[in-house]
Amino acid sequence: MPALTTTSDGFLLHGQPFRIISGAMHYFRIHPDLWADRLRKARLMGLNTVETYLPWNLHQPDPDGPLDLDGLLDLPRYLSLARAEGLHVLLRPGPYICAEWDGGGLPSWLTADPDIRLRSSDPRFTDALDRYLDLLLPPLLPHMAAAGGPVIAVQVENEYGAYGDDIAYLKHVHEALRSRGVEELLFTCDQADPAHLAAGGLPGTLATATFGSRVEQSLARLRDHQGEGPLMCAEFWIGWFDHWGEPHHARDGADAAADLDRLLAAGASVNIYMFHGGTNFGLTNGANHDHAYAPLVTSYDYDAPLTECGDPGPKYHAFREVIARHAAVPQEPVPAPSSKLAPTPVELGRSAPLLPHVGAFGEPVRSAADPVTADDLGLRAGYVLYRTTVPVPAARTGLLHFAGGVGDRAQVFLDGAPVGVLERERHEEVLAVHVPRPGAVLEVLVENMGRVNYGPRIGAPKGLLGPVSFGGTALHGWDCHPLPLDGPDVLDAVPFTASDADTAAVPAFHQGTFDVDVPADAFLSLPGWTKGQAWINGFHLGRYWNRGPQHTLYVPAPVLRPGANDLVLLELQGVTGTRALLTDTPDLGPENS
Asked: How many helices and strands, by DSSP H and E, does the chain display?
């Protein structure tokens, strides 16, 4: 019998009545040296459980390679720390997780197959899932409650009712977990909509719902679907995520606390989404695509009780008061905000242009005909530089046409000079340019801004998405340079030299050093810079963009070190000045009204 069981209206843990009061916190969005701190703060708010997704695409980056459980992905260590803090754990391994995460967690090597039926009983999908679970579950089984570990329940798929109705597939996922030794309670999770609950449910498996308001109505819908058993909101949405170019989303703390009170007063269990959002470090943010493509920002603050840097915010105090009305809360002081680094300017006096040095990152793939997509190049994330020549008899002005568009943002250069930008979100495919001479070199730097994480466009390809022509003449003979720029040693190949220029209009790396006495949390501010990525001491902080709303990047204290520290920026568009600033205050942008 599993440790967590159900009655007609609640849970039993080891035979005793138990209510799940959980908060979502994704280990892969938190610096591992801060896991213990965040778990302690979860317990002190009154949580008895934490929940986390598992990103298949990072744990198994290569279909034939080993499982990655290092650093940010050391889930066994995270589970051990949760147990040491006295917290239970809900695991949500997917295989699809949404989570506003790159590709919804599905590996790009899998979604690149145009014929595969994702999240279905298609053997091409289920066979890949089975191979992944063969690697994943053995190191996790010692952390299940059956073995004395903290994991008390495991989710089957994720909001499947919003995607499909293949019950044979859901049964396969259920059996795949059971046959590999998972004895704990299994549950499904769907939006509190009758059709979604029906399509995503599995007979004999506990159903839970997701919602952020209309508590009584949502719980009633769950009860209509499932006549008995615990009522649980598996994602109680208390904030929201941000897209580039939109306001920073926030939800009134008193309003969210009142709905939490209604949930607990109804006797329901809850998982607060998010308790602590964290950060989309590196190249891991997802994207939405309804009427237009909309990539997410680097911060996943989510207006959560615990802010991106781990400080208790207004919701932390409000939720703690609510929880104390319904359950025991530790009689310990509320944690204080972390110390912050004093404002520290950084002079970036060394640089290296990107386009002339792409060969340092590997050999190109040569295509005699049309350009090759990033997916066909095996590139999960990052950039592709496409290079060819324009065969015109003389200097000429005309239209460059990118059939199929770009995925997702393309900067176009002729003989090294920038001539324009095309963006997927604006449905742009044509650019008017002046070709300065016969045989001019055309370069197109295409950025993958994040893979779609929700809906039918999961797996949409990246890079140049079709033939390219100038003035109606097809351009052939492309060198396609994949630039992942996400490995631990990626910056080792950059040939920095001293630079006294304070303006630049071509993609380039910029490097500078700064001193720190005592490492502390900080926020990287980049006034005068336009768009790119940032690394400190080789740690990939993520993307920046002056489009906003986010205007600072979170720098976790463990990334810094006493003495000299190194900052590198890849600026794509253009910069005025050579200075950055580490500040003590985040700027996530103006809030939605």
From this structure: 10, 36
Catalytic member of 51, 85, 184, 235: 235
Q: How far is CA 106 from CA 339, 375, 449, 452, in A?
A: 37, 13, 16, 10
Q: Reduce the DSSP state of residue 185 to 3 states and report it.
A: strand
Active site residue 159: yes
Query: What is the Cβ-side half-sphere exposure of residue 208, based on CA atoms within 13 angstroms?
Result: 28
Structure letter (DSSP) for residue 101: B
Radius of gyration (C-alpha) of the chain in whole angstroms: 25
Q: What's the CA gap between 387 and 385, in Å, rounded? A: 7
CB neighbour burial string for 235-251, b if at least 16 within 10 angstroms, e if fewer = bbbbbebbbbebebbbb
With a cut of 90, say whether residue 501 has pLDDT above it. no
> What is the share, in percent, of the chain residues with pLDDT greater than 70?
100
Give the containing element (helix H, strand E) for 130.
helix 123-140
DSSP for 350-419 reads EEEESGGGGGGG-PPEEESSSPPPTTTTT-SSSEEEEEEEE--SS-EEEEEEETT-EESEEEEEETTEEE
Task: Name the residue with tokens 């690697």.
Answer: 135
β 16-18/409-414 pair status: unpaired
Alpha-carbon gap, residue 74 to 120, rounded angstroms: 29
| pLDDT in the model for residue 422 | 98
Q: How many CB atoms lie within 10 A of CB 400?
A: 23
pLDDT in tens, 15-30: 999 999 999 999 999 9
Q: Output the CA–CA distances (angstroms, integers) from residue 282 to 274, 484, 532, 569, in the order listed.
A: 20, 11, 11, 12
Q: Which residue in 51, 157, 159, 447 is the catalytic one?
A: 159
Residue showing tokens 């060394």: 350
Mean pLDDT in residue range 87-103: 98
Q: How much of the chain exceeds pLDDT 90, in percent?
A: 96
In terms of phi and psi (left: phi > 0; alpha: psi -120 to 50; beta: otherwise), the region of 495 is beta
Instruction: Please state, in angstroms and rounded to a whole number, the distance separating the CA atoms of residues 53 and 284.
Output: 14
Report the pLDDT value the prediction gives residue 592, as an integer from 0 to 100.
86
The string of pLDDT tens digits covering residues 549-564 is 999 999 999 999 999 9
pTM of this structure: 0.97
Supply the DSSP symbol for 426: G
Question: Nearest-CA neighbor of 152 among 22, 44, 319, 35?
Answer: 22
Phi, psi of 484 (to 5 degrees): -65, -40
Helices 123-140 and 75-84, packing angle to 10 deg:
50
Kindly report the number of other CB atoms within 10 A of residue 455's CB atom.
Answer: 13
Phi, psi of 218 (to 5 degrees): -65, -40
Task: Answer yes or no: are the C-beta atoms of 1 and 185 closer than 8 Å.
Answer: no
Q: How far is the C-alpha of 163 from the C-alpha of 459, rounded, in Å? A: 14
Q: How far is CA 320 from CA 239, 240, 343, 510, 577, in A?
A: 17, 20, 32, 45, 46
Distance CA 538, CA 526 (A): 18
Q: Is the pLDDT of residue 485 over 80?
A: yes
Pairwise CA distance, residues 460 & 112, whole Å: 8
Three-class DSSP category at 500:
coil
Token digits of residue 576:
């005025």
Extract the tokens encoding 492: 């080792």
Does 429 participate in catalysis according to the annotation?
no
Torsional sign, CA 251, 255, 259, 265:
positive
